Fold:
Amino acid sequence: MGDKLIMSNREIDRLKVIHNVIQHRLTWPEAADQLGLSERQIGRLVVRVRGQGNKGIIHGLRGKPSNHRLDPSVLEEALEAVERRYKDFGPTFANEKLRKNEKIFLSTSTLRQGMIQAGLWTPHPQKELHRAWRERRPCLGELTQLDGSDHPWFEDGGPRCVLLIFIDDATSRILHGEFVAVEDAINLFKATRRYLEQHGRPVAIYVDKDSIYKINRQATIEEELRDSMPLTQFTRAMGELGIEMIFAQSPQAKGRVERGFKTHQDRLVKELRLRGISTIEAANRFLRDGYIPDHNRRCAVAPANPTNAHRPLLRSHKLDEILSMRTQRTVFNDFTIRFQNRFFQLEKDQPIRVRKKEKVFFEIRLDGSFHIRFKNRCLAFHEIDKRTAASAPVRYKPAKAPQPGSLAYARNVYVGPWALKKGDVSTCPTVNSHL
Structure:
């Protein structure tokens, strides 16, 4: 009994056509058209089938190692380097470091399989979720996605901080990135200012519904009557700059920046570790000079339209005033203003007339300075010591002596210089009649 041949469906179909050629039922050109091969290849297959039988249709390297296979010593050296320096790296990131630092060159798929077999990498099961696809904006600067990620970026070697990322929707370019101690309005203003000064004003900014971007409460009756909702400091500032704020309904809606953080939390943490960086200042320098340019070179795509939609900052856009913390306050009767338990006296001479009970805005700018604004004009003021309520003298009205003969006079109800003590006898007969 002959050896059993294992063939694929494709090889069975090829064998039938080659048998028809051998039996002169098909010509070489006709067989080439049916199989999508050249006539010379048909001739080679005919020779092999005639000489080896049906086995000739099977590729000669089946069951043999490839002539282009990787030298096993190279993969072994790569796995040793991964276990020594890049044990928690993913296959793609580890392969980049092997090429750059270790001068070991192999494909990512080969390294992945080797890491899986060596127990250095566990493949993640992919859960399929249905998402509606949104087309990218065509122009650079038409939509900028902004978000922050609170993460142990320095692992155990430095303080926990937040990475702010501005990423362009059209190109996936990181336009600005910055580490800050905490994601608050002041740090967000500082990072946004650097972005605006470098690139200009985007058409729109895409953010989530965090309280730093959106006030998440129902409108009051007064706000409904005015048909206006209160704005956060950041949203108010972007409105003054003519930048539209778009609020995502879910984290997946702004997936470009969310997926980016997943990559940064893996790669950036390891890059900082390899360089021994454990301070926010050093990390920001590395972001600006190394990580972001390299990321954009690898991951950025060309926009559908080469036009840059960023708009320049105009002369009327005074960033010192716009990017500030504003709080409304009322002018007291003595022309003082109270803010954060501190008191400020308005000067007598002002560029605009200010009355008592007027509503003014108290500004804290990024440099820490205080300013009071009324009708777009800055008011003159100075800080004073905390006001104390002066202890006013107690004033007593002199008591009127009761008329002689009255019941109060007789019963000694009134207490004063003219009061009668019990037992005293008045010369007034009317009083004596009541005693």
Remarks:
- Residues 404 and 431 are 7 Å apart (CA to CA).
- Residues 255-274 form the longest helix (20 residues).
- Confidence is low (pLDDT under 50) at residues 389-397, 413-435.
- The first strand starts at residue 144 and ends at 151.
